[in-house]
Each structure stands twice: as C-alpha cells, then as structure tokens.
Amino acid sequence: MQISSTAHRPPSAFLKAIGAIVWKDLAAELRSRELLSAMLVFALLVILIFNFAIELQPGLRSTVTPGVLWVTFAFAGTLGLNRSMAVEKDRGCLDGLLLAPVDRSAIYFGKALSNLAFMLIVEITVLPIYSVLYNINLFNVGLLLVILLGSVGYTAVGTLLSSMAVQTRTRDVLLPILLFPVILPVLLAAVKASSGFLGQLPMSEIWPWLNILMAYDVIFTAVAFMVYDYVLEE
Amino acid sequence: MKRFGPKIVLRGLDFEVHPGEFVALLGPNGAGKTTFLRILASLWSSTLGDVCVAGYRLPAQAVAVRARLGVVTHLPLLYGDLTAEENLRFYGRMYDVPNLGSRMDEVLEMVGLAPRRRDLVRTFSRGMQQRLAIGRAILHDPEVMLFDEPYTGLDQEACDMLDRLLRDVAGRGRTVVMTSHDLARVEELATRFDVLSRGAIVASTRREDLGKSNLLDFYRKALAG
Fold it and tell me: Given 3.30.365.10, 3.40.50.300, 3.90.1150.10, 2.102.10.10, which CATH number is that of B2-224?
C-alpha cells in the first residue's frame, strides 16, 4: 500500500479531509444528539422567555424580532461551538486530527462547516416556532439570506476562537468573552438587514448591511485560513 | 532543546534511529519522554535544534512526516459515538488511504476486532480501545511508529495482546520508538534501550550489549550515574 509520497499532498486530499471531518461530526451528532439538543432547547427557551417578557404590540413585532432572533442564535451558537471543540479535546481526538497529513486549515474548514450545519439546523427549527409564538411571518427570502450570511460569519470566527479557547482551562467562560466583541459587526449588520427585510424597507437601505456581512464573511474566513496553524500551536 | 516558558524540558538531546530499529525510551516521570515524542510527532516544535523524521525536516515538511508516522498514546484518539469501522473510515479518509475498505478489513482482523466492527467504541473495554488505536495508527502503513506509554490502564490480558500486536508491527520492518515504565515488557520487545533523564539521553545500549545484566540494572545505573 502506498499513500502520497510527496511532501505536498494533492488538493483532493485536502477536500477529502474536510469532507471526512464534516461526515464524522454529523454522524457522531446523529448518534449522541448532545450538541443539537442543547442548542435547540436553549434557543427555544430564549424565544419563549422573550415572548413572556415582552408584551408585543402587533406593530412592534417586526422591530423587536431581529434582535430577539439574533440574540437567540448567538447564544445557542456559543453552546454549540464550545461543545464541538470540547468533544475533540476531552478524548484527545484533537491530537488525532493534528496528526493527519493535511494542512491544518482543512481541520478549520471541516469544523467550521459542521458548526455551520448545526447552527442552520437550529435556525431552521426555531424560525417556524418563532413565527407561531409571535404571530409573524419569517419566511422571507431576504431574511433567510441574512440568516445564512450572518451564520457563516458567526461560525467562521467562532470556530477559530473556540479552537483557541479549548486549549485553556476556562474555555466555557473564555469563548463568549472572546467571541462577542469580535462578532459585534456581524450581529449589528444582521439585525439591521433583518429589520430592513421585515420592515420592507427599500433595498438601497439594506444593501450596505448585506455588504458588511459579505465582507466580514470573506475577510474572517481568509484570516482564519491564514492563522489557524498558529492557533493550534501548543 | 525544548523550553516551556522559563523551564527547559529537553536539552542537548541527540537521538538517531535507524530504519527497522525498535527503540525503548525509558526514564522517570518528568524526564521529557512525552515532550520528545510529541516533537517527533510534529504536535509540538522544538525551541532550538533540528528534527528530521523519515528523511523529512520538521516543522517545514510536517505534512510529509505525518503521512509516514503512526502514533499510539495512552489515549486512544477515537470517537466514542462512532463504531470501530466508522472510526477507521474517518482516519482512512484523513490519510487518503487507497482501497480503504479492504485495508480496514485487514486491520480489523489484525487487531482482532472484526466481529465488533459495527459496535460503538464507547462500549469497548480499555484494552479493545487500545487495540483499535493501534489499528488506527497502522491503517496508512506508516514507516515510523511512536508509542507513548501504550500499556497505561491495561489489564494483564490486554497487555499480552498488545505485546503480540507490537511484535507484529515491529516484525513488518517498521521503525518503532516507544516510551514505557514497564521494563520487563520492553526488554522482550525492543532492540535498543535509551534512558532519558532531565531532558537528555544519559545512557543507551543495544539488547545484545546488555550481556548478563538485565535491563533494570542498566536503567538504575544510568539514572544513578
């Protein structure tokens, strides 16, 4: 048997490694349901508490909804990010990943994609429940696009920072402290763009926020790609 | 040299292993054995000095080194919520192993876990997990194998089975470096014994040069001197 004998491995090995990590995370989660159930229960509790806490006038719903939604996604997402890396670290599996003959950015992209998948599953589940509880239609193509762009930015930065935080003893506390200041532009742009779509504002007012989201996604994915090697150093 | 903050863990360490050798790296707790193996495995980098594994330099050619390296530690590096087969499939994809299906069959037979291939790893005993960990480490047919305290937490039967697997691994011409505190076991397996103390190799001998003295005497003298 012969595996690639060159110092540099073919691009297909890089993609195969990303696919393997995503498949592994989804298969393990399908069995344990640890991460998704925690994220989902937390997200549903948050929207339920907001529902009781804020007496909403019909006219105010579309104003409050973006904030409530993104607070829910951000906090539930933090739970998922923490757990996703903790699973690797606690059983020593992070070493198993680091020993694989692939560029370490493949580990980043694999973990980021599975984190994104978990986040999208939670969001897809939360949206109809929120629609019923708050009596507001959230199935708006524009809003779904904002949720996708915001989630990409969130998981791009979140995966990078959770890989740093997991190496410390205070990882559960450290991740939100590191993450929320960095993710602020995404949350702000996502809330503003979501408000725009729900309030049916003209596209000229929404575009700047969408541009910020897209720029953030591209920049932070590129930054993570470049620095992930150093993040995983001892 | 390897330094963690102000603490120097490895210093002046000169270590060369020839292809096919089985080297037992012995030493007390805190001698730097695990740190040294982690540097060889490209998990950590040395603060000073050159490291070359299987003809490739670290850290510059780390990917090429990792492709030729199999590592077994006291932790199995396996996912409890995946089956034995799924764990091997995952690592096989990470290593881009050709003909993965047949290679997995071969490895599962070798480590005696073929009948349990569809069972979740979290239902395995410690010994079975360690056997599967060896299967994971040899899946890509590495040239060099590193074992860091592989006997930790194993019962007598599991240790005997691990011995057989290690003999089999070494018998296939692989280069092996193993750390262990179990002198009786490594005396039977290794072809060379190096003693690491306070971050440096303080003694080294081949099995045939041990003569009438046993490994324990050699080890004690090395640490006393």
Answer: 3.40.50.300
